Amino acid sequence: MDALQAPAWVPTADAGRWREDALDWASGVLAELGRPITGPPTVHKRAPWSIVLQLPTDKGPVWFKQNVPTLGPEPALLQLLSERVPGRVPTPLGADPGRGWLLLADHGPTLRARARDDDPALWADLVSQWSRTTRTLAGAADELEAIGVPRLGPAQAEQYLRGRIAELADLPSNDPAHLKPADAARLTAALPAVAEAGEQLVALGLPDTVWHNDLHTNNVFDTATGLVFFDLGDALVGSPLSDLLIPLRFLTHARGGEFRVGDDAFADAGLALMVEAAIEPWTDLAPAADLRRAVPAALLLGVLGRSESWRRAVPTTPGDYADASTAWLLELMDAVSGAA
Description:
The protein has helices spanning 12-15, 18-32, 74-84, 111-114, 120-136, 141-146, 157-169, 181-189, 191-204, 245-254, 269-279, 288-313, 324-335, and strands at residues 42-47, 50-55, 62-67, 94-96, 101-105, 209-211, 220-223, 226-229, 236-238. The chain has 340 residues and is an alpha+beta fold.
């Protein structure tokens, strides 16, 4: 099998020319930048939701990325963010949002390659820098939606969950993502708590902004000028506090534990350090005490974001990831009062 064959989501009519078309586009962009391709491309990553190629040039490697169409806004999002928050995300060397094609320069090792994932100070710095980035983008929600980034803010949370319950319950019973009647009933019982969480966050008054939705140390470059955040295919428009969910889980896992939604993010000093770093940039809009009280609600909505991420990433539910979107929703049942 040709390692550079078209990704599975490319229409059959275009699959035969995908490699030629993609490489011709990349070659043209790089030639205009004075850094022609100097050798054959190699596949760095092939997943059900994206393909990443490494292209050698005389000025170092360049990365070509294409996502499944349901994660398509990433090229346009990086273009927008590189203008609004320069230096915080990679500036695309080339982007074709219509075809989902993206070219990025090499930025060196990720933060994970240089540091220990069990260091709370590292995570506190990471979430602080990202939170300051999202604070800069406060007020950009409509602009983000206009380029195709889906909105899943506090105001949409209850209706989103209601729709997902119906969607997954209606799947054939032999579909791995099927929501069993008993689980559908328990999730339905969780709807009032999800609505309350959304209302609490709305009342807090923070604007919806860009929500990375997969914020961890392997999605961050560690550069001489600061952290550079990438891999934004999962991004949504929503509460900035919801981005705490993945860092809390990663740090806890690195230290030998497991963080579940509903756990107290302030019960551990290392986790609390991270949370305080994330909320500090928003204290000009809401008191720190109110922000702390809203963290559990934001984490609850973070689960919806992860479920949506997997729904978009593997829309045809292939292989080992078939039940991922459903599994994230099921985590709500043990976290929400009245859902057990």
